[in-house]
Amino acid sequence: MMELDQSCSVLREYGSEQSLLSRPDGSSTFVQGDTSILAGVYGPAEVKISKEIYDRATVEVLIQPKMGLPSVRERAREQCVRETCEAALQLTLHPRSSLTVILQVVHDDGSLLACCLNAACMALMDAGLPMSLLFCGVTCAISREGQIITDPSAAQEKESQALLTFAIDSVERSVLMSSTSGSFSVHELQQCIAVSQKASEQIFQFYRDSVKRRYSKIQ
Amino acid sequence: MAAGFKTAEPLEYHRSFLKENCRPDGRELGEFRPTTLNISSISTADGSAMVKIGNTTVICGIKAELTTPPSDAPNKGYIVPNVDLPPLCSSRFRAGPPGEQAQAASQFIADVIESSDLINMEELCIEKAKLCWVLYCDIMCLDYDGNLLDACIIVLLAALKNAQLPEVTVNKETDLAEVDIQKKRRLKISRHPVGSSFAVFDDSIIIVDPTAEEESLSTALMTVVTDEEDRLCAVHKPGGTSLSGEKLQHCINRAITRNKEISKLVDKVIGSMKATK
């Protein structure tokens, strides 16, 4: 069995840029290794009558693949990102309005859902929407030898026997969203959660630094 | 009076029950609704089953067709699951193209089939790169009262266990497939994935097998799929409020006992079918 320290939450190089688009209310890119997502947030804006909720805002998430039309796989991802955003945002402050998050896949080289979550969170922060917590996505792959690889590339994902993606919240470091494929033991699940929580510290620190950098320039 | 309270303040109504460790329908927090299973419900399908969890009713029909194997896996057949939520089953679904929930459920079922190794796909191949079986598993909800995913997994498992495929040979001379309708064999189902769904109320109280009303009032939903060796095939939590490690462990333990109950039910029903023949 592997130890936590060995796989000491090694993430690929990551980076982000905020407010790079002029039309959306908030925008960001998030790059993890070769995986890159461009995100835009519109809202709070007018909502279609059929989608209106009387006591809170309606959140819509659209994931646009690099090629072709969004398929069922994208719909499942959209659901995961949307419900995570709903948990983080204070939606009751904007009743009867819509918040739309658009995630454009620029390049997919593994850990796509995690990258989508990070890009969405950065874009929501950029839009200045009230949130009760921040979230980040971490993907863990369990290799055939039982080793846990954080933030795997597409090639590593293909080689793995199981793939787990978690959204971690910034307050309690607990699991907001979990999406898995492949089979794994309970012990491996708990290990992956622990590794992801550790990796999330790095990403939250990155969020903090980038916001600090941005607002120290203004004054 | 109670009916008025329920309509005006549904969340408070549920909370008043949960405070007493019970639920409006008389169940305990960790209790599933009665689950019933019927197989060979559709005589024209190659395999079929119907499952009821409380009021939730889901029916599955399997249609087997011959096709050429996909080029990236020439020695494998494949399964195409599809979950349909017609307007009949609940007022929340409209006619037209499948909504997000139906698409997400279809994807989830496809993921469970792949992660659990339910069937050895190589057995669905008849001749490499030439001929294989494709199983269209159409799952339709007739009555939606929460816990759709659990019902879908049980119904899929039972329908696949019920399915019989005719024997097919490829004639060497004419290169055509010959189907022997008389000789039918069952599929080899190697694993028994069973799901258990949980709803989180007020960020702390966990209830199992939520009804549609409980689902809409809860702050988070989670589905854990385990197989007979107590390995996890899926931990699907599409968002909502966070869950601590101990709570997660509690849910997994409940899912493992649920797997035993459902496996027993499926085996019993499949067994009774063989006995009557």
Please explain how this structure is put together.
The complex is a heterodimer of chains A (219) and B (277). In chain A, α1 crosses α2 (112-127). In chain A, a hairpin with a 5-residue loop joins β8 (162-169) and β9. Chain A contains four helices and nine strands. Chain A has one domain (4-218): Ribosomal Protein S5, domain 2. With 219 residues, chain A is an alpha+beta fold. Chain B is 31% helix and 32% strand. Chain B has a single domain (22-276), classed as GHMP Kinase, N-terminal domain (Ribosomal Protein S5, domain 2). Chain B has six helices and twelve strands. In chain B, β2 and β3 form a beta hairpin. In chain B, α3 (100-116) crosses α4 (148-162). Chain B has 277 residues and is α+β, with helices and mostly antiparallel strands. In chain B, strands 1, 2, 3, 4, 5 and 6 form a six-stranded mixed beta sheet that branches. A four-stranded antiparallel beta sheet of chain B has the order 10-9-11-12. In chain B, 42% of the residues are buried.
Summarize the structure.
The complex is a heterodimer of chains A (219) and B (277). In chain A, a hairpin with a 2-residue loop joins β2 and β3 (35-45).
CATH superfamily of chain B: GHMP Kinase, N-terminal domain
Which structural class do the helices and strands of chain A define? alpha+beta
One letter per element, helices H and strands E, the order of chain B comes to HHEEEEHEEHEEEEHEEH
Write the CATH fold name of chain B: Ribosomal Protein S5, domain 2
What is the domain total for the residues of chain A? 1
Helix content of chain B: 25-40%
Biggest β-sheet: strands ordered side by side in the sheet of chain A? 1-2-3-5-4
- Chain pair sharing the greatest interface: A-B, 35 and 36 residues
Backbone CA Rg of chain B? 21 Å
- Indicate the percent of residues in helices of chain A: 25-40%
Largest sheet of chain B: 6 strands, mixed
